[in-house]
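Review form for a predicted model. The reviewer records the input and the model, then writes brief findings.
Reviewer: anonymous (R2)
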Amino acid sequence: MRGIQELLEVAALLRSWALEEESGIGEVFTTAETQERFALSGPFSFIVEGDGRTQFIDDWREPIVRPLEHPRSNHGHLPHRGHQPPLLCMGPAFRQGVTLSECSLLDLAPTAARILGLDGSGMQGRVLEELLIDR
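Model under review:
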C-alpha cells in the first residue's frame, strides 16, 4: 500500500504536468474523485485523461513518444470530450417525443428495472421518469 504522502506527491506532479500543453494530459483524477464524479472504482490510484490528441497505451518499449500509425480503441473518455451516443427508447412504456438534454449510463438499469416491474432501489442512478408513461 502506498503512503498518503507519496500519493499526494504523485498527484501534484501529474497535475503540474497537466498544465503543460505538450504533456498530452488533459485531467488527472484520484480514486476518490472518480468514485464521486463517475461512480468508478478499482485497483488504481489515478486516472490520467488525455488531452484529445494523445493516447496512453500500455506499451513500454521505446521510443516512448511516437506517432500513432493507426487509430486504436481505448477505454473511453470524459463525455464532454468525445462521443455522446443517443439513447433511443420506443415501446409501450415510453412517452413519445420526449427529449432529454443528458442522462447517465447509470440511469439505464433502474429505468429498465421499473419497466420490468423489478425493485431497482439498490441500484446506482435514477429512474428516467420523464421518459416513462405513468401506469
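Findings: Residues 85-135 form one domain.
Further findings: The chain has a mean pLDDT of 84.
Recommendation: see findings above.
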